[in-house]
What we know:
Elements: E1 2-3, E2 9-10, H1 22-28, H2 31-43, H3 49-60, H4 64-70
Antiparallel strand pairs: 1-2
Amino acid sequence: MTTAPSGVPHPPRPSSHPLRTIRDIRESLPEDQRRHFDAELADTEIEALPEMLHRWVTLSNDGFEEFLLSRPFEGLEFGARS
């Protein structure tokens, strides 16, 4: 349980996302992106952390890489000039 600023305890909200900790976010990133994440995390002000972390969670789980790997050449025409 956490305590709200008013001092009234409230249960933690269940996460709708599988990445629940900074470590989870960091480990879900490719090695080259971890350096960028670490640098941004170190320079981000406390008040801006939720927005920064939400952006990285979105980036790490957007499914784009899986999409590209599942259909690498779908819709592409080779040999034609535009």
